[in-house]
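Homework help board

Subject: predicted structure for assignment chain

Our instructor gave us this sequence and asked us to write out the predicted structure in token form, then describe one feature. I got the tokens but I'm not sure how to describe them. Can anyone check?
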Amino acid sequence: MKVESYTPGRVRFRFENQLEKRNFVKNIDSLKGIEDIKETANSLTIKFEADSQFDYFLKNFIMPSIRSMKIDYNLDKEDIFFYINPLIKNNITKAFWNMLILGPKRGFITFTICSLGVGPFIKNKL
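My token output:
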């Protein structure tokens, strides 16, 4: 479940599948303050009264749990290495790049195995 948009009195959720959406609707039916529920394929738009039971439930339970589930999509050092490494064509530059990012031992071993051993072997066979 993901909150697509939120304004006071209206919220729109997007669900992964229909089962998740049906279970959510079934569980919130008993809450007071819901004025209108509009369903589309995998989304749900709910209009509700401000300061109602549903508003309290939304602000104190649903929104904090969704914020805590957000994934951090930052790239780390190895991700940057594996994106840039195929673009470097000069062997000396590639060796220094490997040793700079991965460390001297691991970088040299990676360079010798991948750039001097496996890469040319695969290029010759294909």
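Reply (TA_rk): Your tokens look well-formed. For the description, you could write something like this. Residues 16 and 56 are 24 Å apart (CA to CA). That's the kind of observation they're looking for.
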